[in-house]
Amino acid sequence: NEYKSYLSNEMPVKFTSDLEAVELLKNKDSETLYEVVRHIKNRVIGSKQRKQEYIDIGILPSLVDILKLDTDEVGIEAAYICNSIAHGGKNHVLQLAKAGVVDPLIKGVFNENTKYVEACLVTLRTLFQYPELESETAGLWEREDFIPRLIDLMRGSELSGQCSAMIIGSMCKKKEHQVVLSTTPIMDNLADLLASPVTHTHMAALFCLSEYTYDSGFVAVELREGYGSAVGRLYELMQRDKYILVQYNAAKCLVNLYKVHGLSEENGRTLLLDCIVHLCLYEDLAIKHIGANLLHDLIMQDSELQRMASYSQHLMKGLFKFFSITKDPVFAPLMRASAFSAFASLAETQEEIRRSIIESENIVSQLKLGLLDEDVQVQIGALSCLHSLSRSVKQLRTSLLDAEVWKPLLQLIRNSELTLVRTSSRTLCNLLLDFSPTKEILLEPDNNMLELLTSLAQHSDEEIRLNALWAIMNLAYKANTELRNQIRIHFDIPVILDMMNEQESERVRLKAIGLLRNLLCESAEVDNIMTTYGRGLLKTLIPLLENGSEEEQEQILCVFINIASGMIAKDLLMARDDWLTALLGFLKHTNSHLQIAATTCITHIVKSDDRSCSDRQSKLKVMGHFKQLQSMLSALPAVSDRVKIALQYFN
């Protein structure tokens, strides 16, 4: 052992039992203490059962007392005992935290004894990797001294640098944490650690960097503009002569940068994809699993990378082989879940890839098994894969219909697990599209589809409300009168308008507007709805038209285009000078989409041969709409073509 005993020339202390050893910890005789802690440390290393036995006989309070008082060899050994106990797992970590071990360890980080500082860092590194201790770390971000101290220690010994980087990475879980770190020289220190020849140092630095760069555009800009050599080093560490977990963590950092547009090299993404494909095909199951998850993260939003990945027959076949791993109780569900996630990202945007996935192997039968799996992560992965494949018109009408995937889907959407409900409700939207034959099956009375969607639309979770509205909107699209009436029985106009309030997010409001647009589609029904709900409808829509985002404004104008098809509705609109003024403003707007929508509104207002038509035209001329339309004849063809149509209806 690197720590020499004070009693190197004395006979070692004898213990008749572990309980006696723990009792001796209370003895303040430092000579005896050192022998005791050495004995206990050697006893607990490698034995989870013995760790718990020592906890049960009351060792933790004595260890905390030692850490508070001793920063010499005794304190060092006590810290390493705590570290060994922490390696016993979550329950041991929670018991250590409850006993109060964290505070003296944090205090120990500021000690002058380098070896004691290292022992405290090693133990904090082990403790803080558990998310259950987030409450212990939250207040450390408020302290002015702790993070700067860790930043300084990154430049200390190799061990201090490794532990400090790991601790910072474990603590960095929020955007505000990234902001705090950006005010420190952390990138200079990480760049130095990445340049180290030591693999463990690479691992620690890459872990810290992956947390620092996660979903952070401003950090990505910092790296791209000020630390090009560090980014280059990431590519070096991704090469196949490096330790496989170093390759993975370097690739993970680069994926983080790529997702927030932090990589400037066009060929960089090809190298990154090659590395991740290599990880997916590696012989070790753990590496295959994390490689497939990383593949999902990289290509999910990039159709070009999806295409490039799909060209690798080795990758496709390798991912299908994940499903053949059935006997390993730990890795079997992990492999299935990650395979489904990888296929979900591959099939996200391109029909050709979807067809290849379905035709190459028996993925649909695996999908159905995945939906019925007992493991929640497998179910979520299967739902994500189904969501991507169900974007295909052909597959909705053939393979997915034949497999009756809607049956397990309806079970999962009624689950209490939030992520399952989110993913299954998102997938349900595709099955209810107008061209999906599953739509008619789902609308059969036994499935209670409208009742289900109405319930989900009132859910406390925003994403579930959004998906439910999206599904109802899909149902209402091109629906016959009977179905529209059924929708209104469950989800009538006042309910829809209530979901456009300012407390709702913009994306929920947009789906509510879309649903309203699909319900207001026949002139007789429009007049009926406007007669009953017109006042409340205009009271909700006009303020949104005036103050909403441009996307909301365009969608609301499309609703008004439908409203303007009704005869009674036309008069209600013409009575609202605030609406007409807003319409004139959109004719003058720089956004051509808003100009086109406003012009089409006017076309529907003046396109009629009823007795009030000339009065409507006259009012529009007086308010300046006609003159503004004439001035738009020289606009872009997409706008001027609509303007010509509107003008031809004016007398």
Word description of this protein:
This protein is an all-alpha fold. It is built from 43 helices and no strands. Helix 1 packs antiparallel against helix 2, helix 14 packs parallel to helix 17 and helix 40 packs parallel to helix 43. It is elongated and about 110 Å long. The N and C termini lie far apart (101 Å). The N terminus is likely disordered.
Present the secondary structure layout.
Blueprint: H1 18-24, H2 30-44, H3 48-56, H4 59-69, H5 73-86, H6 90-99, H7 102-108, H8 114-128, H9 134-138, H10 146-153, H11 158-171, H12 175-182, H13 186-194, H14 199-213, H15 217-226, H16 228-237, H17 244-259, H18 268-280, H19 285-299, H20 303-310, H21 313-321, H22 331-346, H23 351-360, H24 363-371, H25 376-389, H26 393-397, H27 399-402, H28 406-412, H29 418-431, H30 438-442, H31 449-457, H32 462-476, H33 481-490, H34 493-498, H35 506-519, H36 523-547, H37 550-563, H38 567-574, H39 577-587, H40 592-606, H41 613-623, H42 625-631, H43 637-647
Helix pairs in contact: 1-2, 2-5, 4-5, 5-8, 7-8, 8-11, 10-11, 11-14, 13-14, 14-17, 16-17, 17-18, 17-19, 18-19, 19-22, 22-25, 24-25, 25-29, 28-29, 29-32, 31-32, 32-35, 35-37, 36-37, 36-38, 37-40, 39-40, 40-43
Question: Main attributes?
Answer:
651 residues, mainly alpha, 43 helices, 0% strand, elongated, disordered N terminus
